[in-house]
Amino acid sequence: MSPTEPSSTERGTDEPGTDEPGTDETEQVRAFWQELELPGLFDVHTHFMPKNVMDKVWAYFDSAGPLVGMDWPITYREDEEVRLNRLREFGVRGFTSMIYPHKPGMAAWLNSWGADFAQRTPDCLRTATFYPEPDAGRYVADAIASGTRIFKSHIQVGNYSPGDSMLDPVWGAIEDAAIPVVIHCGSGPAPGDHTGPEPIAALLRRFPRLPLIIAHMGMPEYTEFLDLATLHQEVRLDTTMSFTDFSESAWPFPVAERSRLLDLQDRILFGSDFPNIPYPYLDALGAVRRLDLGDDWVRDVCYHNGATLFGLHDA
Question: What is the pTM of this model?
Fold first, then answer.
């Protein structure tokens, strides 16, 4: 929904899942996990960034975004504190800041911001990132030593190869520390020079214990990334934007592969891409449930897997 589109109240309908974000959606999101008898939600893929960076990200989506001709309104275009409160009101008990650089000389600064953000936001996992540059090994080692819980790698935006030799010390340190990396490496929503399953398969041949979390289920190369998760016990996938009406219209998940989601039940994590999603948060949860893989699968994906991986005490 675009910011100028009337709310459901103005349209004279209370159809669930179509409101502007607000109290009704909050109640519906909370009802989702309460009906499953969960203590809340765990969202492994949310974006909090320095304001100047987030403003540029929003401007990118406003101007064209990753898909020319496709409308991509930012549903939760709000101040940082409002966004934090919204997640908490939804019942999200753990989340991330998902920072990423698009050029050299940016990652260390983002990591410093991420450390400060986590310090003042205890329900956010301390998040760090990296870029292929001469000092990447040093600042990643520093981030690990100082308490980073999760890394973000964006192959598409950064336009770098995961096999770049300047990243060898990065991958080695991350593998040894067993710190998960959410990695956007699929070719959706738009392919990059280094996206797709082949570069990741090559990376895992060299670093087979890397705890990668394949963002967006590897969209649109779902099958190939499921294959990699089957081969590598430490590879997981997140549901970010997958299975929603928005994504299914362009990059449908193969119906024939649904049974494999059950096989990987303990290694699929809920992700939303909040706040940069073109639909309400509730849609992402509904999309997971619509797969009809059973309540236990939904419970694991939407809470237990993330909470267990990152040590929430009641997981």
Answer: 0.92
